[in-house]
User: Fold this.
Amino acid sequence: MYKTEMPNWKRKCFFLKYGIKGQLSKLKGIMKADKLSLLRALNDNRDVFPHQLGITAILKNEANYVQEWIEFHKLVGVTKFYLFDNDSEDDLEDRLKPYILEGTVELHKKYGHGKQREVYEEAIAMAKNETRWLAILDLDEFLLPLGNESVLDILNEKKRSAMLIGWMIYGSNGFVKRPKGLVLENYRKHATDELLADYKIIINPRKAIRVVNPHFVQVFGATTDETGKRIWAYPYKTDPQALPAPKKRVRINHYYSKSLEEFQMKSQRGFADNNGKVKKNPRGMSDFKKHDQNLEEDDAVNVYLPKLRMAMKLRNNDQSDNS
Assistant:
């Protein structure tokens, strides 16, 4: 899906319309929230915490990917992970044990369907007093700074309460079966910058009002993109005025499908954000084909790969020595 061509004045009118709707929704959230908590949020401007950047995620049967995901994000500045195990049947907890023991990971159990927003509300509450910025991601999403700036450099340069970061959709790279090696090494081909795709958010957890959906949290203060442009409502890719997200400084590498085999395994897990209404996942081959974007290739992750391989080797050696 690509942007709809229209006169600038018309696009601005749509932005105004959807921005007003977004602010009215935010006002409703404020009216429903606990007033004492809101007052604290308004006056809480702390910026010194044990952790400057954390991530929360909900996982199900993703033990094979979790070590690479954690070690990569440690390289880009993440020091705390709030993870929620949603009925996993693999050895996730064993894989995470070293990280739990050292305090890098907090692992919580979450049972049942449609728990994504509930989990994020809990993670925000956990992070309020110990983490400056909290990213809300999935295990197939990698937060990638581009150029010489760190994620924290970008977050801290403006007075903001949240930042939306655009997806870069990665395809199967022609793999039918899951290949050996790292996700970041195997899957190099992706969509163009012009493809309309979703965003993920990094928030100041003390400014959170409510989780609207897995991609957006309403906050006190400004929500911006990487350029500092104010965003007044979540920019759904299906909105008529939708534009591609800016992805010059930072992006989310989204390995949605990976190989066909991995996509089929993902389909069996179900959606984590369906509020329990749908237990069977509707993902099918049409969904795979839509996300199988192999149009361009870049080497943006290469700068991290040697350190990532070394970190994983050291971690695995430590685990072997302790087994």
